[in-house]
Amino acid sequence: MSYPVLKAGQPDQSRSGLCALAVMAKAPRPGKVKTRLAPPLTLDQSAALNICFLKDTTQNIDSIEAAAGLVCYTPVGDESLFDTLLPPSFALIPQREGTFGERLLAAAQDILSTGFGSVCLIDSDSPTVPAAAFAQAAEALAQPGDRIVLGPSDDGGYYLIGLKQAHPEPFQNITWSTSVVCAETIERIAAAGIELVLLPTWYDVDDGATLAVLRAELLEATPPPFTTLPGYAAPHTHTFLEDMEQAR
What we know:
Elements: E1 19-26, H1 43-61, E2 67-74, E3 91-94, H2 100-112, E4 118-122, H3 131-142, E5 148-152, E6 158-163, H4 181-191, E7 196-198, H5 208-219, H6 235-247
Parallel strand pairs: 1-2, 1-4, 2-3, 5-7
Antiparallel strand pairs: 4-6, 5-6
C-alpha cells in the first residue's frame, strides 16, 4: 500500500488533539542509508536492516494513544520506496532542504502547520526505544503550557525532540554529529526560558560497536547498562539479526 502525503500549511482540525510522532528517515536505497554499518555489513544488508528499523519504530509508535504516526522523508520523489513498510494509519511528509538543524526546524514547522497539537521528531536509528518513552513524550506535550521534550542518547545526541511550538533555539548553533549535541540543545532551551522534560536515555545504532549492543539486547537479553526501562522487542530487527547469526 501507499500512504497519503501531507502538505505544509494545509491544517486539519481533526489533528488538533494529537501529537505527531514523526520518524525522520531517508528512503531506503542501498548505499544511501546506514552506510556506517558497512562493514561489518554489506551495503545491501545495511539497507535491509534500515528497513527493519523503520518497520519496528513505526509499529512501536502506532501503539501510542493520542498520537499519529508520520514519516518525514527525503528525498522527494522516493515516496514509493516506503510502500507497504509502514502501518496503515501512517502518512508521509517531505523534508525540506538545508543543514541538519534547518531540516529539523522546518520539519517541526511543516508538521505543526498541518494542524497537529504537538510534534516529536524521532530518529530512525533506535529500534528498541521503549513505547513508554514515546508515551511519556506525548503525555508531556498534551499538558497545558509550553515545553520541549528531549530523549538523550548515550553517545551525546538525542533520539527524540518534542515541541508544541516550532522554537528555533534548540536547532541553532549546535555542533551536529558530535558528543555535545544534547548538552548544547539543553543549554539553548534553558537560555530561551522554555521548560524541559527529559526522557530515559537510549542509544542509536550507527556503527559496528552499537550494532553489537543491539545484538546483545535482542539476541542475548542483555540490555545496555545505562537503560532504566525494558526495550521494545523490535521483531523485524530481531529476525534479521537472528537470520544473520544462523547464516554464519
